[in-house]
Amino acid sequence: MTGPDTYPELPDSRSIRVLQLHSATNPNDAIYFDLIAISLDEPPPDEAISYTWSGQALDRPVYANDKAYLITKNEEDIMRRLRPSRPGSFKDLWIDAICINQKDDGEKSVQVKLMFEAYAKAQRVNIWLGQGSKSTALTLKWLRWYNSKRVFKTGLAELASLEYWERAWTVQEANVNGSCFILCGSSVTFRLDLFYQSHYMIPPMYIFSSLNNSKLTQPYSLHMLDVYRTNVNSEFGNEILDVLCRTKATIPKDKLFAIRGVFPDSLGALTVDYAASDGDVITEAAHIVLQETRNVIFFRYACQAGREDRFLTWVPPWTSSAHIPEWLRRFSPAVISQDAIVSDQEDRQVLKLKGLRVDKATSLISERFPIISPLLVSWSRSLDVNLAYETFVVFRDWISTIGAANNEDTHMRQLASLISEMMKLDYEEVLVWFSLIWHGDNFGMEALWDYGLSGGGQVCDCRKYTVNFLQLVSGRSFFTTDDERVGMSTLVARGEDEIVQFTGEKLPYLIHKSLDYPGKYTLVAPCWLSGAVKGEELAGWSGTLGDLEDIELV
């Protein structure tokens, strides 16, 4: 179906192909276009198209350079929508999946580097969201006028749920050109920047209505970041790392190739090579993030439950966010060094990082606690009772294992200290609450977490302590250490896991001796230690680099 006549030769590394779409007077006429080679240094194509094409079959027949050619339904719909009707007229389009020979990895590796420039230089970028529905059509019209609340609410939800907003490549395509327009079905085209701005106007208009707008802009947040629209050099912080985790791509390495053009001074150095393995590309990106940020906060994104990707344990797979809420990130010991201190090494698969060995986990480890949804408001009672009971069963089983169901026990006091400091609760009152948990069949939850009476006659606001405790341990695990501390980690520790404070990160980490690479370690999870959550100096740290060791991570 395709051949040299379909894909004319690209004369040099600055050349791209554009699609010259023929006119048709009848919307149902067959689609004809020519693929022609142009230089990016010449006048750009009329319009570039940003859309998704994953999962769609190549089953729509068209004619490219008078040769039969198959495209996806999305591509057919776009061309029918944009095809000129005046006889003899043409429209030049850039559609990456068609203009780049997808069967030629060598060509793709070169052309992908030019995509940022192709979209940026186009006279305009059209964002195709699909045919849409009556609700989405009305919603796009409402961004100029308001009509029906119920239909509008449905339209907002449908627009927000479209796959376009999740795909990695569309983040770049929608933000490199100041002249972007939204197309959805037969709706009138709408400027992308006005589409974004209008969403910030909606919540005040509905403040007294039943429409919940608290997370209205969340689906678009990947495309609404100021750093993209202004194309400025920005710190590669948590916001950008979250973007990588929340986007989707058919090929894992495409998530990084898609966003590299937005950060030319950092990820722009990433080698675009489709013959390279996903692991090699993601490892190279991790080194770039480390060099750009000079810290290893990205380790938090590497510590995910059930990883089966076989990448290096210190390299994030960029498939899930860190799951450490902002309020929990504040608790840590004193930082050893804001900058990561990395020793020179030839093997890029090994990260040799300076760190301080702090402690070691014992075998007294709890199961992972159930995940509890965050409260909408601090005084909310809308907690799942079954999950609360499951949480306290895990908690009481662990306390029974370590033999600490006694408020005089060292571990019990370390745990009370950890909870009181991280949740801003009174230490002695936490101990009172503990006594209710050990001895009451309802785990101290009198009348659905109202007030309980301890054996000593002390009244305890069980609801307050239970609510705070559930939020603290959600999805996490407790463990004890050789120094009789109590720790909490985002994943379940293993006996003999070592606790290390790395340079370039304020949270301590659990690491485990690698079975495959003697003398090296795998990264397990970030953690918190009793007595080391309010900026305390760690034992063994005198402030000199001589206290630190090279810890090799694989």
Q: Strand tally, please?
A: 18
Strand content: 15-25%
Kindly report how far apart the N and C termini lie. Answer: 46 Å
* Helix share, percent: 25-40%
Low-confidence stretches: 204-214, 227-233, 376-383, 446-455
Q: What is the overall pLDDT average?
A: 85
What radius of gyration results from the CA coordinates? 28 Å
Record the strand order, biggest sheet: 5-4-2-1-6-3-7-8-9
Q: Which overall shape is indicated by the principal axes computed on the Cα atoms?
A: elongated
Number of helices: 18
Strand pairing plus helix content: what structural class? alpha+beta
Q: Please outline the major beta sheet.
A: 9 strands, mixed
Domain Heterokaryon incompatibility: 47-173
Protein name: Heterokaryon incompatibility domain-containing protein
InterPro entries: HET, HetReg/Transcr_Mod
Organism: Trichoderma arundinaceum
Structure, described:
The protein has 554 residues and is an alpha+beta fold. Among the domains are: 15-128, no CATH class; 234-324, no CATH class; 351-366 and 478-553, no CATH class; 385-450 and 458-475, no CATH class. It is 32% helix and 18% strand. It is built from 18 helices and 18 strands. The strands form three sheets. Strands 5-4-2-1-6-3-7-8-9 form a nine-stranded mixed β-sheet. Strands 10-13-14-17-16-15 form a six-stranded antiparallel beta barrel. Strands 11-12 form a two-stranded antiparallel sheet. A hairpin with a 2-residue loop joins strand 4 and strand 5 (67-71). The longest helix is centred in the last third of the chain and has 18 residues, at 385-402. The two termini are 46 Å apart. The relative contact order is 0.08. Mean pLDDT is 85; it is low at 204-214, 227-233, 376-383 and 446-455. Pfam families: HET. Residues 47-173 form the Heterokaryon incompatibility domain. This is Heterokaryon incompatibility domain-containing protein.
